[in-house]
From TrEMBL:
This is Sugar ABC transporter permease. InterPro entries: ABC_transporter_permease, MetI-like, MetI-like_sf. The keyword Transmembrane applies. It is found in: Cell membrane.
Amino acid sequence: MGPTVTDVRATEARGMGTKVPGPRSAPAPSPDPAAALKRRARRENLAGYLFMSPWIAGFLLLTAGPMIASLYFAFTDYNLFDAPKWIGLANFEEMFADPRWRHSVSVTLWYVVIGTPLKLLLALGVALLLAQKRRGQGFYRAAFYAPSLIGASVSVAIVWKAIFSDDGPVDKAQRTFFGVDVGGWIGDPQWILYALVGLTVWQFGAPMVIFLAGLKQVPRELYEAAEVDGAGPWRRFWSITLPMISPVLFFNILLETIHSFQIFASAYIVGGGAGGSACGPADGSLVYTCYLYVQGFENSRMGLASAMAWMLLVAVALVTAVLFWSQKRWVHYEEGAR
C-alpha cells in the first residue's frame, strides 16, 4: 500500500519547516478530593495522638493499670510480700462481717451528712455577701478563698490538731466562757469527728468562688421586677436566686459529696496517735479511707484493702447516680443549655 494523503502532507509540511503535532497523549488523572481529605485527616490524627501520648501513657500506667490490678487483688489474698492467691469473694464476706468496717461506714456517712451541707451553706452565705458591690471585694475574696488552698496540707492539719487538743485554745475557751471541760475534742471519741467537720467547713473557699460565678449570671432585671411587685429579700432569694443558681448548686453538692467520701489526710493526721489509735480514740475518726489504709499498709492486707476500695467506688457511683436522678426535680436549666 502506498503513502496516504495524510503522510504526503506531513512530509511536505516537514520539508517546509512546519511543526506538525504528534499523536495526543492521555490527560493526567485529576487528584481525588476524598483521598486527599483522608490523608490530611490521618496526618492531623497522628499529630493529635502524638501530643496526647504523655497523657495516654500516664492514664494507662498510673490510673487504668492500677485499677485493673486492684480489681484482681480484691479477689485474692495479697500481703505485698508474697504472690497473691485467688480466694474469690472471701475478702468481701470478711469485710461485710467486720464490725469495725461497718463502724467506718457509719462514721463516713455521718461526716458526709453533717460536713457537706454546713460547708455549702457557709459558702453560699459568704458568696451572697461578696456578690454585693463594696470596697475591698478583691481582698475579701482572696482571704476567704485562701483556706481552700492550704487547708488540705499536712501542716494545717497538725495545727488544727493542736488547737482542739487537750488544754488547747478551744479547750481553754470552753472552760473560761462556758464552764465546760471535755478534755479537748481530739481526745474525746464523741467530739473528734466534729473537729474534722470544722476543718472541712473552714475550707469553703472553692465552692464559694463557684457560687459567686453563678450569682453573677443572674439577670438584674428579675430582681428589679420582683422589687416592683413588692417581694422582700427572702422572697427574692427563694423565688429567683436559688432557682437561677440551681445548676451551680447541684455541681457544688456533687463535687463536695464526692470529696467528703474521700477524706483521709486530715482524719489520719488529726486522729493519729490519739488514744493509741491511728484513726482517733475508740475509732472516733475512723473514716472509710482511714480504715482502708490501716488494712492495706499497717496490717498488710492489700487484697482486703482493694476490695474495700472497690466498694467505696461503687458507693460513690450510686450516690452520684441518685444525685443526677434527683436533679430533674429541682435543677432548672435555661432553654437549650442542658
